Amino acid sequence: MIRSVLIGNGSALPAQCVSNAELAERVDTSDEWIRERSGITQRYIAGEGETTATLARDAAQAALDDAGITIAEIDLIVLATATPDNTFPATATKVQALLGGANFPAFDVAAVCSGFLYALGTADAMLRSGIAKRALVIGAETFSRILDWEDRATCVLFGDGAGAFVMEAQDVAEDGPGVIATRLHAEGKHGELLYVDGGPSTTGEVGKLRMKGREVFRHAVANLAGVLGEVLEDAGHEPSDIDWIVPHQANLRILDATARKLGLTMDSVVVTVDRHANTSAASVPLAFDVAKKDGRIQPGQLVMLEAMGGGFTWGASLLRI
Ligand code: ACO
């Protein structure tokens, strides 16, 4: 059967790391409050010259190096972001040019924190249908640029970064590697719980992130538990078959609550929210890259990726490495 197989992964972070204590010097907050409520201890913030496209390029190049191939062997880029360099052209096309690629489809998808799951699902469908052979799937964000630094309830929770997968269409056995099952959801009626208060067609300004944190929390746990169950059922697996969950890194308490709903412990959950904070569409591939490079995620293992974000949008994908 034809499946999309992960053949390389990479990530990139801005140069500047900002600790909770440093943040507390300019925002009315404390290290203790941020740690207790979210598990975050630090985040990376893009500086001058660092943009969503440059972070995406660095993550993508690292993924290409990991796969042992060059951009010449790629024929699709799908990039997830809610913080593109410009309204258009798509950041994916900018990354294509920065990497020296030409003449293949490259486009952005916007599903906020679950953007990487949407991008992976889209690329997987295009690879399995034969539209492309080898895809770069990227999640990249500079959320620091849409934060209201006067709103302490949101600005302490986010960071910048990028992560990338190289996916290849391969003919594999049933129990072989690749994406096994994916489910994506959206429920637009909850748009006002997590949104940006501007845009090209409304205010003409970029706008700032607004969030009703408590309500987002409640929906996140219920939606994620639901979609994880659906993907496991589609794939014919039990929760106990999962070697690693690589969740969207929004908040340690959401990760904990979701794992418990599946009857799993935090021992099988990859956690990077403490170091990276919430990097939106970048968080799943960033966390995956950390756990793959440090040797936790091994070939042959079953890995569940999952995310939920503004919209609401949410999704999960089960793959064998
Ligand atoms: N520092 C100190 N105090 C603060 C801060 C801060 N940074 N932010 C808020 N507070 C205060 C509030 O003013 C409030 O004070 P009051 O009781 O005197 O009015 C108190 O802390 C409690 O505020 P709440 O917002 O009720 O705190 P809560 O316990 O709900 O935690 C949080 C807030 C962390 C945002 C939580 O609701 C949450 O994790 N929600 C999930 C949202 C999320 O992770 N979103 C990410 C994007 S969506 C996604 O990725 C899934």
UniProtKB/TrEMBL annotation:
It is an enzyme of class 2 (transferase). Keywords: Acyltransferase, Cytoplasm, Fatty acid biosynthesis, Fatty acid metabolism, Lipid biosynthesis, Lipid metabolism, Multifunctional enzyme, Transferase. It holds the Pfam family ACP_syn_III. Pathway: Lipid metabolism; fatty acid biosynthesis. It comes from the Bacteria. It catalyses: malonyl-[ACP] + acetyl-CoA + H(+) = 3-oxobutanoyl-[ACP] + CO2 + CoA. One of its GO terms (biological process) is secondary metabolite biosynthetic process. GO terms for molecular function: 3-oxoacyl-[acyl-carrier-protein] synthase activity; beta-ketoacyl-acyl-carrier-protein synthase III activity. Gene3D superfamilies: 3.40.47.10. GO terms for cellular component: cytoplasm. It is found in: Cytoplasm. Its main location: cytoplasm. Its EC number is 2.3.1.180. SUPFAM superfamilies: Thiolase-like (SSF53901). Belongs to the thiolase-like superfamily. FabH family. Catalyzes the condensation reaction of fatty acid synthesis by the addition to an acyl acceptor of two carbons from malonyl-ACP. Catalyzes the first condensation reaction which initiates fatty acid synthesis and may therefore play a role in governing the total rate of fatty acid production. Possesses both acetoacetyl-ACP synthase and acetyl transacylase activities. Its substrate specificity determines the biosynthesis of branched-chain and/or straight-chain of fatty acids. Homodimer. The last Arg residue of the ACP-binding site is essential for the weak association between ACP/AcpP and FabH. HAMAP family: FabH (MF_01815). This is Beta-ketoacyl-[acyl-carrier-protein] synthase III. It comes from Aurantiacibacter gangjinensis.
